[in-house]
Design a protein that fits this description.
Blueprint lengths: L2 E7 L8 E7 L8 H14 L22 E2 L2 E2 L20 E5 L8 E3 L2 E2 L2 H10 L19 H11 L6 H5 L6 H12 L8 H14 L10 H5 L7 H15 L3
Parallel strand pairs: 1-5
Antiparallel strand pairs: 1-2, 3-4, 3-5, 6-7
Length: 247
Amino acid sequence: MKITLKIWRQASAVAEGAMATYEVTDITPDMSFLEMLDLLNEQLIAAGTDPVAFDSDCREGICGMCGLMINGSAHGPDVTTTCQLHMRSFDDGETITVEPWRATAFPVLKDLVVDRSAFDRIIQAGGFISVNTGAAADAHAVPVPKENADRAFLPATCIGCGACVAACPNASGMLFMGAKVTHLGLLPQGQPERDARVVKMVSQHDAEGFGGCTNIGECSAACPKEIPLDVISTLNKDLRTAMQHGR
């Protein structure tokens, strides 16, 4: 395969960025998108050109690092992570546009790399439970109804990739935050801090510059882990309850 890439190049966080065009050859359909970018970088390095910077880690679809806008879609045309997107999803000779996430809360650091530490600060604000550590508890020491366990497991699969923010016209992080609030709120260990958690997380979310949710649904549609949109309803319900409690 041979493709043409239009890629955002930006030397640093304070530099002006612009699109650059490259041709990449010798691509096989079974290559992942990141492997194709590796091939491009090998060609750029061989030509004495600075390679394209992009994030990656596990390359197994579980770390959430590989966030890219590909032809205007978060992670590309398939509902998966960028590292699990394969070149067979594109046509030979196609032109592909690659950009970083576009959000105030995710500033570009270099090329396709963005700073997603805003998510970390939301978690630090309240996305945890405070329990005594030590030896592992017996498996059934704290009973959890199966319905709650199953419901909690789905939002717990969120990998924090930021596709929800990138896909949202308002650059809202509500799906990410709703996933964390929902899965902790369904477990007995999450109850003591339930009110304080949601208030602190929403406050941090807004302080980071994320937009508000207007229920468009692009976030859930782009989520590689298929987090359902109704976690945002759970978040709003918990926030309303917390405010009624005067938290």
